[in-house]
Amino acid sequence: AHAVKFVGSVNPVDEAYAAADAFVHPTWYDPCSLVALEALAAGLPVLTTRFNGVSELMNGRGAGVVLDSPRPVRLLADGLLTLTDAASRPAMSAAARQVAGEHPLEGNFRAVLEYLAQVASERTSSS
Predict the structure, then answer these.
(1) Which pTM value belongs to this model?
(2) Residue 22 burial class via C-beta count within 10 angstroms: exposed 0-12, middle 13-18, buried 19 and up
(3) Ramachandran bin of 12, using left for φ above 0, alpha for ψ from -120 to 50, beta for the remaining angles
(4) According to the model, what pLDDT value does residue 5 have?
(5) Cα dihedral sign for 41, 42, 45, 51?
């Protein structure tokens, strides 16, 4: 209880990232969590699950912990302990920034727009 604070909605969010040591998002479903990408970009090690699309970017990169599931709780607790290891956090933080830097939002938006243009073009040429 002395180390965790539930603060509700925070605006601007960058101040919350700056005050945090890690980001925990043990989701059952999130196609690609923007909040997890933001946390990585802020240099926060992230704990998430394979149900979060961002886990594919993190897997094996040392940017945090990717769990198979939010359950069992013991594995979640072990993941949290990993993030609290002050000696490991600088390396995880650097890896987090690296992962985020390789996947900028602008690139995501550009890829989505290109895909939409391709689909529109295919529909136009097939009609």
Answers:
(1) 0.80
(2) buried
(3) beta
(4) 76
(5) negative
